[in-house]
Amino acid sequence: MKSQNPQFSPAIPLYRNHNNSPMLLLAASLSSPSLPSFALSHSRSVGRGSISAIFNPHCLVRRGRMENLLRKDFSLGHKNPSEDALRRWRKAVTIVKNRRRRFRNVADLVKRSEAERKRRGIQEKIRVALYVQKAALQFIDAAGPPDYRLSREITEAGFSIDPDELASVVRRHDMKRLNIHGGVEGIASKLAVNLEEGISTSSISERQKIYGLNQFTEKPARSFLMFVWEALQDLTLIILMVCAAVSIGVGIATEGWPSGMYDGLGILLSIFLVVTVTAISDYRQSLQFRDLDTEKKKIFVQVSRDGHREKVSIYDLVVGDIVHLQVGDQVPADGIFIFGYSLLIDESSLSGESEPVDIYDQKPFLLSGTKVQDGAGKMLVTAVGMKTEWGKLMETLSEGGDDETPLQVKLNGVATIIGKIGLGSAVLTFIVLTARFLVEKAMRNEISDWSSGDALVLLNYFAIAVTIIVVAVPEGLPLAVTLSLAFAMKKLMNDWALVRHLSACETMGSASCICTDKTGTLTTNHMVVTKIWLCHKSKEIKGIDSIEALKLETDEAVLKILLQAIFQNTASEVVKDKDGKQTILGTPTESALLEFGLSLGGDFDGQHRAFKVLKVEPFSSVRKKMTVLVACPHGIRAFCKGASEIILRMCDKIVDKSGKAVPLSEDQINLISKVINDFACEALRTLCLAYKDVAKGSVENEIPESGYTLILVVGIKDPVRPGVKEAVQTCLAAGITVRMVTGDNINTAKAIARECGILTEDGVAIEGQDFRNMSPEQMREIIPRIQVMARSLPLDKHTLVTNTRKMFGEVVAVTGDGTNDAPALHEADIGLAMGIAGTEVAKESADVIIMNDDFTTIVNVAKWGRAIYINIQKFVQFQLTVNIVALVINFVSACISGSAPLTAVQLLWVNMIMDTLGALALATEPPSDELMKRPPVGKGTSFITKAMWRNIIGQSIYQLAVLGILNFDGKELLGLDGSDATDILNTVIFNTFVFCQVFNEINSRDIEKLNIFRGMFDSWVFLLVISSTVAFQAIIVEFLGTFASTVPLSWELWILCILIGSISLPVGAILKCIPVSSNETRKKQSHDGYEPLPPGPDSV
């Protein structure tokens, strides 16, 4: 199947159509009079008309025609796309070479629908268990309980309850059966566990052996061979394999062994290489996604073991473990309530019911997968893994896969449009070649005389047409997005950002606004009490000396009530590890107060033994306070702490220097308010501590809302993280507005915002309540200027995010850590949950988890998001250039000479260069700092820009001109003669074509800037791909000529090929100097008046 290559001379003039848009018109004039007149007439009729229409990309996209086609069928929202949109683009994809590979990383809507049906079935079953349990239990009582017999293995291990019976008690909410076993204490006894100290770590293996592991059934990982098989499903490769087999059979019959098999074997070897490289690339991607999936499932819980508190993975939980639950936690296994306060559980993930459930002694059953909405408590684990309903539900959660990203969908559209053009050109090429062959036979009066050689010629034409489809259908475009995302997500995971949803990594590159929390994100989250106001005096806390001085000058009665307020009203604990060292478990704010209390000589355990807690109202971002009701020797006392101005309004008395409660005057209230503001202006988080003795006649266990006695105003320092100010400046330079949304005092918020560079002179700082009460028109007017929102509720954050997106069309990223932040995280284009301070509820609602809670990590995510977008643009520019040149050169040559200059084997190699290897080289380049000196990509912006079309068309013209000159005058110009002159020329053309792509790949590293070498030597993947391509090209030319239809070249011809290819670099530089009028290149001025930094030396 060697190419016959008569000389022809392509002329490539530039014309304008009637609408004055440049069109690349390819005409060909014959230089050999021996060619039939059919070729001349056909080339003239096709050259200026249909060839232009088919191959000219500018004609195709004139006036945004391609973008209109993409917007119509291939547009997808950033988040939660509708099923109609998902089905619409799938239906529009008509040209697919390998459906299994092309759609591997998109959602399977059929499986998703089936999984949803299964989920509903399981939820209905759970709903029956939860809400019809009484009737069900009556039926069970009538029939008699199931007969559970203890096995010898269970009794020998020291346990006395069967795993299935234990699991059924909780699953059925069977209080009667629980009471038969002696309640939670009886169950604990049968599980050989102490409810205070927890299990012994030495019994873990026995418990796992008898009661099971807390792991769920998952699909087995796909092996490498499965990816090989998937790569072989490519229809064009299958057709080529059939052609190769036929070619070998016919070739051996006509040319004999072994020369008759070389052409077919060459195709088979090329297919083997393509399949192997494709499978390796896909397999590596799958490993990256598997690592990411494993990381996403890492959830840790607090348990008691061997009398100590420790943090363990949920997968290490065993039956009998004592688990401590807090607000926002996910219940990690089925269990029974031991002890707790105001424990409110959201069971909607299991039952579908939105109403939360109160958990207490008479309703003690906790189900795996539910969420703690409020309160705190301890539970005894009774069932794990697949013995829980959540385990059965988890089997369906991964069915159907994740939603595809907007860029994947858009590139599927580009691939479809280009694929249709390629298919048309392939069919037309085959028709032209066959017609020429038949006309020539007719002119020789051989139309009725057919031989096996004629069949081999037609088979060769068919193989060329199929190979054109292989090259022309850019199957690698949508797959390159997945490759780039997988690479970026792996890198981000190493940089403390865990991407939960693929689209978020891509969308973050378009973010124009970040609404960030203050505590832990902009600040270190390491809090220390640095100032207090006690007994009408303000005191600075600096080291042990100031603590000792405070103890000496403070009355014992005051210290006593102060320590009670600190140690009784806390959700944190002071625990001892195995070495006896004290550790505080809790939030940074609580930890700071407990550290302060311990430094004053307080005894945490002693305080808790002396008082009995009656009721707890936990802190929440809505209440902004925490209250506890305790029974003490002299009666009932309530302790309250929280936001300073809120607690101050609840107080009508104050502790004096002797420890007595005295009335609080208006002047004192004003003075205390000034103290609070002074603390806040020093960037301190302010809290007030208060108490109230509850009269015996009051409603039982009702927490009072007024009449408190103020004890202390405390100022807690939380320093700004290093690098945050620079990161904020980077965001501003990148056209990203940064807004602080916090629950803190407005003066504290403003001080921190100024320190971070967020709050400017013309910016607005507003309180959540004021924002909440505004009309939509007022919000529209003020939102562009809001830079700080203080004392905000989760609803305020949600309103700000919603209106910023809908009123101004912004792409909004929002951070959150609490359970109540979930709606805002879900509503935003990108939800960013905190990995350290964040609850499991917040993490589940987020798209990205910031593992170190650091704002600079968020900026890094934005940088990678921009890198993904620009890398895919580079790859598209590179691949479309190869597409156009390969299509045009083969089609025109077929029309004129009756053969294609590039053989099937050579085209398969070119396809691998531009597809898998091209994606590896260009789609995995790391981000540069320059990416954050340009505005974000706006919604609706054309993906293939005019600058890209300029580069594509310019490089295509250059390459076609060079290849045409070589094809026409190559022998004369190179001084080739002899029997092997044609083979040498064909090899030079092939070698030149490949080196044009190699240098154009380097050219594609930057679409608009001249310096394409910046950062190139930092990208080892790019260097490896380029060097591998060049090395293998040399092997093909010098050693595999028998299979690839090439001959070895002299060193002079090698230098010539490399030199011609390298001219692509200055051609690219000249092209970039040609201005293109585009709205995309103008400076973008955002609604807050920001303009990107002016270009400097780095813009070159």
UniProtKB/TrEMBL annotation:
Its EC number is 7.2.2.10. GO terms for cellular component: plasma membrane. It is found in: Membrane. It comes from Trapa natans (Water chestnut). It is an enzyme of class 7 (translocase). Belongs to the cation transport ATPase (P-type) (TC 3.A.3) family. Type IIB subfamily. It comes from the Eukaryota. Keywords: ATP-binding, Calcium, Calcium transport, Calmodulin-binding, Ion transport, Magnesium, Membrane, Metal-binding, Nucleotide-binding, Translocase, Transmembrane, Transmembrane helix, Transport. The lineage of its organism: Eukaryota, Viridiplantae, Streptophyta, Embryophyta, Tracheophyta. It is a multi-pass membrane protein. This is Calcium-transporting ATPase. Coiled coil: none annotated. Residues 180-252 form the Cation-transporting P-type ATPase N-terminal domain. NCBIfam families: ATPase-IIB_Ca, ATPase_P-type. It catalyses: Ca(2+)(in) + ATP + H2O = Ca(2+)(out) + ADP + phosphate + H(+). One of its GO terms (molecular function) is metal ion binding. Catalyzes the hydrolysis of ATP coupled with the transport of calcium. The keyword Transcription regulation does not apply. The chain crosses the membrane at residues 235-254, 260-280, 417-439, 459-488, 880-900, 906-924, 1020-1041, 1053-1074.
